[in-house]
UniProtKB/TrEMBL annotation:
Transmembrane regions: none
Signal peptide (residue range): none
InterPro entries assigned to the protein according to its UniProt record, in alphabetical order: DNA/RNA_pol_sf, Rev_trsase/Diguanyl_cyclase, RNA-dir_DNA_polymerase, RT_dom
Domain of life: Eukaryota
Lineage: Eukaryota, Viridiplantae, Streptophyta, Embryophyta, Tracheophyta
Name by which UniProt lists this protein: Reverse transcriptase domain-containing protein
Residue span, Reverse transcriptase domain: 51-128
Length: 151
């Protein structure tokens, strides 16, 4: 943290800031977007689904709180969430769009489920390869995260 004090803000913005590198989705010529209508559910099914989602959210929050219990230090980022720090190019947000009964949505940051997200993350790691002799492996992994936050 002492090497990159400008990265650790007091308050993080709701969406990651614009950086030098954005995640893009390149489409092959002659291909068309996939268009599937939303799945229609009966009211009883929808009610049951909402209950399940609420239960999963409560479990997630409970698990999160139990993992933090007794911890001395906290950081505002975690490696498994680094994918959400890479913004999608403004011109490609429509390519990530999906529709639900509640409206249309598009990803502003990279979704973990996108196919190329791992390749993009590995590209950031490869850019730090020159520092391999300086940092221990654990430190190098954290520098990757910090580097991705800086660009």
């Amino acid at each position: 943290m002492s090497e990159f004090p400008e990265v650790f803000l007091d308050d993080l913005p709701r969406v990651s800031p614009e950086r030098e590198i954005d995640f893009g989705i390149d489409i092959l010529l002659g291909t068309r977007p996939i268009s599937i209508p939303p799945y229609i559910m009966a009211l009883a099914e929808l009610k049951k689904l909402k209950e399940q989602l609420k239960d999963l959210l409560i479990r997630f929050l409970f698990d999160l709180a139990s993992h933090l219990q007794g911890a001395t230090f906290f950081c505002k980022i975690d490696l498994k969430y680094v994918y959400h720090e890479l913004r999608v190019r403004k011109s490609d947000i429509l390519k990530t769009a999906f529709r639900t009964r509640y409206g249309h949505y598009g990803f502003l940051v990279m979704s973990f489920g996108l196919t190329n997200s791992f390749a993009m993350y590995m590209d950031l790691m490869n850019r730090l390869k020159i520092h391999e002799k300086i940092y221990l492996t654990h430190d190098l992994e954290w520098v990757v995260v910090v580097f991705s936050l800086k660009i």
